Amino acid sequence: MDDPKNIDDVLKEIAEELSDVLVEFQPGGQFGPIQDSKEYERLIESLPQPERDLKRELTNFARLLDYFNRAHLKKPHGIADAMFAAAELPIPERTQRIREINQTLMKQLAHGSQSAEFRM
């Protein structure tokens, strides 16, 4: 009969495995961010057209959300629900729906830029 492992040994093994997984999400890792715009474009261009269009819209969405967060702007109500609903659609319809969501975000930006804080 095998001896049960010491809880500290088990925790150490889990921590090591988790560390190995997280490295893959760091820059340079398999799932890490792409810092080089040429590499990003090369990867996007290697996709079939419907997936390429979807990835571009998803990238635009991520950039818009990043801007909203950095600028401390309020996002339109229901954006998360709209994205969850779009995820259920086939790729062409999903792409169109995400494009509409992005347009809603851009309209919110235009509306926000009309506030006194941004006027000259």
Describe this structure in words.
Helices cover 65% and strands 0% of the residues. With 120 residues, the chain is mainly alpha-helical. The chain folds into two domains: 1-33, no CATH class; 37-118, no CATH class. α3 runs parallel beside α5 (91-112). The chain is extended, with a radius of gyration of 21 Å. The mean pLDDT is 86.
- Calculate Rg over CA atoms: 21 Å
- Percent of residues in helices comes to 55-70%
Helix segment tally = 5
Number of strands: 0
Global mean pLDDT: 86
Tell me the count of domains: 2
The secondary-structure element order is: HHHHH
Distance separating the two termini: 78 Å
Indicate the structural class.
mainly alpha
Largest sheet: number of strands, sense, barrel closure: none
Strand content: under 5%
Shape: extended
Helix/strand layout:
Blueprint: H1 7-23, H2 37-45, H3 49-70, H4 79-86, H5 91-112
Helix pairs in contact: 3-5, 4-5
Descriptors for this entry?
extended; mainly alpha; 5 helices; 0% strand; 120 residues
Summarize the structure.
With 120 residues, this protein is mainly α. It has 5 helices and no strands. Helix 4 packs antiparallel against helix 5.
